[in-house]
Amino acid sequence: MTARRCARLLAVAVLAAFAGPGLHLAGGAAVQAEPPTVLSYRGFQFAEGVTSPTADKPQSKLWFADGSWWGLLATAEDGNVNIFELSDNHTWTDTSTVVDDRINSTADVLWDGSRLYVASRTADGDLLVSRFDYDDEERSWSRLGTPATVAGGGMASVTIDKDSRGRLWLTYVQEGQVRVAHTNSGDRAWSTPFVPPVSDPFVTRDDISALVSFDGKIGVMWSDQASDQFTFAVHDDRAADSVWSQEVASRGYLEIDDHLHLQTAPSSNGARVLTAVKTSLDNISGVPGSAEQIAVLVRSPNGKWKTVPAGTVADGHNRPLLLVDSSSEQLYLIATAHGQGIYYKRSPLDDIAFPGGEGEPLLTIGSGGVSDPTTSKAAVTSESGLVVLANAGGSRTYFHAEIDLPDVTADDTEAPDAPADVFTSVTAGCQVDLMWPPARDNVEVLRYTIERDGEELASTTDTGYTDLSAGCASTQKYAVAAVDTTGNVSRLTESAPVTTPDSMHRGSGIWLTGNSTATNDGGRTLTLPAPPSERGDLLIATIDAVGVPTVEAPAGWDLVRRDAEGNSLVKLTYTRVATGTEPSVTRWRLSEETSVAAVALSYRGVDTDDAVVEAVGQGNSSSTSVDTPSVVLPDDDAMVVGLFGVAGLVSVTPPPEMVGHLTQGNSAGARQRITSSTAEMSGVEVASGVTATASVAWPSIGQLLVLRPASSTQ
């Protein structure tokens, strides 16, 4: 197999520290009947002093032309960035065409079929745009003229594309603003860079931008971590530079990071813009592993955006890339995982959904450190294959890998096997849990569809599902079918009839289902992970702060009790009813910089129409006793939740009547110590209040919340 005639080849070139030439690695998921075989080959070492030569995140450094893959690689001798060809013997061959002689320059390439354009910059150097022509007889590249200097130094990553009028465009972030520039006509003379005239082009020093050409328009996307959103600005190729529209592609606290990569894909009524992005949720302690970390943002031709989950915090993905295979109409997502290797997932373009988990391995390396993957800007085909470069830290060694990639659309008409069995179990809450073994397919299973009594209920990439809407005193039958990456659907596997209980057994009436804790760094915000919950659970957040700041709660949270003890501390307790789609974290704002400790709780079996029967609290002067007022229970199954705050970093012993103790302390500096603690009890009168005990005497606040149980029937 040659690099020029690699029909149905997926070639993966990786900069990695890995021993031994001709290494053979196997990849594939449990749902694949015949996992593809990955072949990797050792290359040369690039020069000392070169770091991360495959950066940056939104850039492309590879292209396919005249039957070969080409790339920008740092040389072994001096670290210059030259054009290399992937040769027939699976090695990268230097063409000696210098692109940038500045060490550690990063570049984005655009091959338009007749000319190559390279936008390159260094951390402090100028932004240069170079043009190269290709001689197909000599199989060589030659520079046209001298590089154009578009902007001075100090910008973040740059990307380049061409609009429908033949003008080149580029974007980058500099001095906290998104900037763009374009050629005035043709591909030579550049405009002065300018800030797109949109409502909020301001970003942080850690943000980046990227652009893409589609449907007679230029689209510029940037991460905006200050405003908690990915922003997309659109410019019609025929419009003046002053005419732009602005869209919000995605929004959410800590759901924005400076990782984005753009592609386009055709549809029946225009191009879709596809963006692989990463959240910052993996940086927050206590965030559940199921929280979303990687997503694909999809813009339909009518300008509507949707978010497709693609990876969780537990998957450990980083620096995601999107690759469009136009032959088989597949979308590939490639990312590093836990810094231990490069993995991929794929999805049909007409129904974008990605399997759960890390994905299939492209290259896994025992020593780890694989990072900074990069790939082609243009769509790939089964004839061209696909190349990805990555960087593995200090080894300074190039590797590439090749895997056979079938033309799924042309070759795969075989439906997956149906799941072997569907197992069911019924919970005391009148919910039905479904599980089934993974189905098998000749290529790859993408997802499963679930029916209830002959009507479609849900779709999932997992091999299990919980029907929360089954209802009590009901009998139904479930069926599951497997769907592969081409859209072939298996036959249905039916379960035995399932009957739920006549009523929802609440046990002691109300029970704790999850909790989380958080502290801040003495600033004016608090990031609080969401406790595990389901739709209809009651969420409680109790915030203890040094001093008496006011607190701005996230939308949907209601203040049920506020108590202060002089100027020493304040305790604020909030509730909300879980929607089933809670954000992984919430941000709470403070009126002043101070130390905060917080606890969040989730309770099931609460009457959410009238959840809190009573909320009482009191401040206590400096003592080891953290006292509360008394309360009276309206029902034997009611729950009393004790919430205790202490203006010091202490251990807290709960009242003897209470269980489920949870404590979080914070010391953000001198005189900035605070402790938040909770405990609970059920079915016990508290006529004289309760007392928790602190290990050291400090001012404190004690609160009690009485939760009303829901009806015993549903």
Description:
The protein is an all-beta fold and 714 residues long. It folds into 3 domains: 9-411, Neuraminidase; 423-499, Immunoglobulin-like (Sandwich), CATH 2.60.40; 511-707, no CATH class. It is 1% helix and 51% strand. Strands 7-6-5-4-28-29 form a 6-stranded mixed sheet, with no helix packed on it. Strands 48, 49, 50, 51, 52 and 53 form a 6-stranded antiparallel sheet that branches. The protein starts with 8 loop residues before the first strand and ends in a 7-residue tail after the last strand. The model is unreliable at 1-35 (pLDDT under 50).
Using only CA atoms, what is the Rg? Answer: 29 Å
**Segments where pLDDT lies below 50 for 5+ residues?**
1-35
Q: Give the percentage of residues in beta strands.
A: over 45%
The helix count comes to 1
Outline the biggest β-sheet. Answer: 6 strands, mixed
Span between termini? 65 Å
State the CATH class of the largest domain: Mainly Beta
Strand order of the largest sheet: 7-6-5-4-28-29
The total domain count is 3
CATH topology annotation of the largest domain: Neuraminidase
- Average pLDDT works out at 87
Q: How many β-strands, per DSSP?
A: 53
Shape call: globular
Structural class: mainly beta
Q: So, CATH architecture of the largest domain?
A: 6 Propeller
Task: Give the fraction of residues assigned to helices.
Answer: under 10%
